[in-house]
Design brief:
This protein has 595 residues and is of the alpha/beta class. The chain contains 19 helices and 28 strands. The chain is globular, with a radius of gyration of 26 Å.
């Protein structure tokens, strides 16, 4: 399958053509063309093509797009045109084929990304005119971050404001998704076992916390303005500056917003938005440039610490983007002082980074507890990959699954049983569960937290190697403990809880709110065209207030009984009473491991 990818900005156009097979590992994809046009002006623009760099006569973005077919002469068989769209709001969790309705939805989001979405739509419209017979697809920078929990996306502002769509969305999602997967592949580990901090440092810059395969927070917010210091964007500022600057300088909101986007960041601090210029000036003693470098690194280091805390630890730090890939001094500045996290760079490795062939070299010192990698981002490749998968997705048999409400319970290890019930004690299997070989024990335990206790908590068998305690969010408030939402078994950095039994107590970590998931029999998974690790939507229908659950993980095994598990808070939100079934709608498969 051959996909043409456009990444259009307000003053530049990057494009590429990729050959890849739906569902195949990213490593097998082949980029057969790479080009760009930028710095448009009355006398033309700069062109970078396989034949080399030159000047081209195109004076506008539209002219450049119209010239692409001639530029691609000889490349036949394009299947679809894919576009990077900056802002997809809360509506687009994956690639979307462009229809009039979808285009209208994207246009409605223009106020949230006024410098990006209009340019993206202009490119999309022009491409549709140039290639009227090819399907046009959109891939959204925000989609990867829709898994962020409400605590990370909600601003503490009046409800009326929030109801207009004011919330944190996050951007650079395509880059962060690729980088996280590339890091896991380079380390030979499953993405779902890692806590990754992806640091995209370029003219636009953002940090993303990827915990066990999902984005849980990102430094950019409602717009691409929040977060790190960037080339021309300020990053984090006190919103009180709007009132202050209006009173002191007479500036209106539009003028202030324009300055924060286009006249701030490195440009506002030094007069140059290019880190290479800033570093050169700093080395010659320029105090403004030196301050700008210190601010840039300090802001990034603060986010690393914050997101390590949010994830309960850090396994991998990945640098990407033009600065992240090419500035060893900046990588060093950011990492110095993070030894308390177990992170330390190796001087020689950091200086000798070679990124040819999509490499992801490790630059941490020997003995560092945190792996530090550098890799080129590959947003266009990721866009092509996602669109190819969407086009090539097999027709899936409609599948309905029973929905089971999972009340609070514990899975105990042998040490916990001894502490709670006495030496040599064996739990008494009681009611069998639907999952083969699983049962509820006749015994019960009490959960004890700083705010209160919850008694008569079920124990599910058989025993596990590590104790795991599953509660609802409301239970967490009753106990006074903040439990993270995690998939079963992902217990790194989880809080401690005290279990009380008839023979004593047992203090353990492993307290989680179980993420909604589906246990699925292999035969049902094959019929539905779903693989282990796929993420789907499940629509519960009018019997459950018409609610749709997003981002539901599918866990496939031969002996599983096909059933969706949600907790009591989710059941209450859906108004579930009695037996309920849900209908599965696939959203996005987990990225296959690369060869």
């Amino acid at each position: 399958m051959r996909i043409l990818v456009f990444n259009a900005g307000s003053s530049s156009l990057k494009f590429g053509v990729f050959d890849l097979d739906p569902g195949a590992p990213l490593a097998r994809a082949q980029q057969v063309f790479k080009g760009s046009f930028d710095r448009f002006g009355p006398e033309g623009c700069d062109a970078s093509l396989p034949s080399g760099k030159s000047r081209a006569p195109h004076t506008t973005l539209g002219d450049a797009i119209r010239a692409v077919p001639e530029t691609l002469a000889g490349l036949e068989g394009i299947t679809a045109v894919a576009h990077r769209i900056a802002h997809g709001g809360a509506a687009f969790a994956g690639p979307a084929r462009i229809t009039p309705e979808v285009r209208a939805q994207i246009a409605e989001l223009n106020p949230l990304a006024p410098l990006h979405n209009p340019a993206n739509l202009a490119a999309l419209d022009r491409a549709a005119q140039v290639w009227p017979d090819l399907p046009q697809w959109a891939v959204f920078d925000t989609s990867f971050h829709l898994s962020n929990p409400a605590r990370a996306t909600t601003y503490a502002v009046p409800r009326a404001w929030r109801e207009t769509g004011l919330r944190r969305y996050g951007f650079h999602g395509t880059s962060h998704k690729y980088v996280a997967q590339r890091a896991a592949e380079a380390l030979g580990q499953d993405l779902r076992d890692l806590r990754i901090l992806s640091l995209h440092l370029g003219n636009g810059a953002s940090a993303c916390a990827v915990a066990f395969g999902q984005s849980i927070d990102s430094s950019m917010g409602m717009t691409p303005l929040e977060g790190l210091v960037m080339g021309t964007r300020s990053g984090d500022v006190d919103p009180g500056l709007f009132g202050y600057l209006h009173r002191q300088l007479g500036l209106d909101a539009t003028a202030i917003e324009q300055a924060l986007y286009s006249e701030s960041g490195l440009l506002g601090l030094t007069g140059s938005s290019d880190m290479r210029d800033v570093e050169a000036r700093a080395a010659k003693g320029d105090a403004e440039a030196q301050l700008a470098i210190n601010i840039y690194a300090y802001r990034a280091r603060k986010y690393i610490g914050a997101y390590a805390a949010a994830m309960g630890g850090l396994d991998v730090l990945v640098f990407t983007g033009g600065i992240g890939e090419n500035a060893p001094a900046m990588r060093r500045r950011i990492c110095d002082g993070l030894e308390f996290l177990g992170l330390k760079l190796n001087h020689d490795r950091n200086l000798a980074v070679d990124l040819q062939g999509r490499a992801a070299p490790q630059v941490q010192a020997f003995g560092s507890r945190v792996n530090v990698l550098v890799t080129e981002t590959a947003e266009q490749l990721m866009i092509a990959h996602e669109v190819a998968n969407a086009i090539g997705a097999p027709r899936r048999k409609a599948l309905r699954v029973p929905v089971a409400v999972s009340a609070r319970h514990v899975h105990l290890c042998a040490r916990a049983v001894t502490a709670l019930f006495g030496e040599g004690y064996d739990l008494t299997p009681g009611k069998p569960l639907r999952q083969e070989g699983h049962w509820a024990a006749q015994e019960r335990v009490t959960l004890h937290g700083p705010r209160g206790e919850i008694g008569n908590v079920a124990i599910l068998g058989p025993l596990r190697r590590r104790t795991q305690v599953e509660i609802s969010r409301t239970d967490g408030f009753a106990l006074g403990i903040d439990a993270p939402v995690r998939q079963s078994g992902a217990l790194q950095g989880t809080p401690q809880i005290r279990l009380i039994g008839p023979a004593g107590h047992f203090d353990t970590d492993g307290l989680i709110i179980a993420a909604r998931h589906i246990h699925m029999n292999s035969a049902d998974a094959e019929a539905a065209g779903l693989a282990d690790g796929a993420r789907v939507q499940v629509h519960l229908g009018e019997s459950a207030r018409g609610l749709t659950f997003d981002d539901v993980l599918v866990r496939v095994s031969d002996d599983a009984f096909t059933e969706m598990h949600i907790d009591t808070d989710e059941a209450n939100a859906a108004g579930i009473a009695g037996a309920v079934e849900g209908e599965i709608a696939p959203v996005a498969a987990r990225i296959p491991a690369q060869d």
